[in-house]
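#lab-general

N.A. 3:47 PM
ok so I finally got the sequence cleaned up, no stray characters, all 154 residues accounted for. can someone with queue access submit it? mine expired

B.Y. 3:52 PM
send it over

N.A. 3:53 PM
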Amino acid sequence: MEKETHDQKLMHSFSGKDKLSSKGMSMQVIVAFLVMIMLGVGSGYALAAKSNPPITSSTTNGVSKSSIQTGQSYGVSDTSSYKDTAEGTLQNGGIDGEGEFHLVRPGGPSQYVYLTSSVVDLSLFIGHKVKVWGATQTAQHAGWLMDVGKVLVE
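B.Y. 4:20 PM
back already:
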């Protein structure tokens, strides 16, 4: 009878050790899984930031206000994404938070085209008569809001 108790104790200690071992093992798996997720997210973020730098006015880098010339165009050369055009004198200021600039055109303020651009630094062209190529955007206050991709100085 004593032998049976001894065997039962051995069995019991093995089964207790297995439970402890499986708890420790599952905790290690969870920790390893969390570490892999964090590394994956971190490396993905780093690669995305490296391969997609923030949008800047790269098409007008190195251009100063004094180097703007009549007949010269600035911005993208492929205007397939920018099918709308407008002409006027570029001025600073939007309307009720829409656009950063506007084109003054004949007919007064009701004919202004309000502009923004993620491609071209429009501040370089303030006071110039220009033709712009852009994509019309939905607006709440502006009669016409355009995201400009190309500017031709007239």
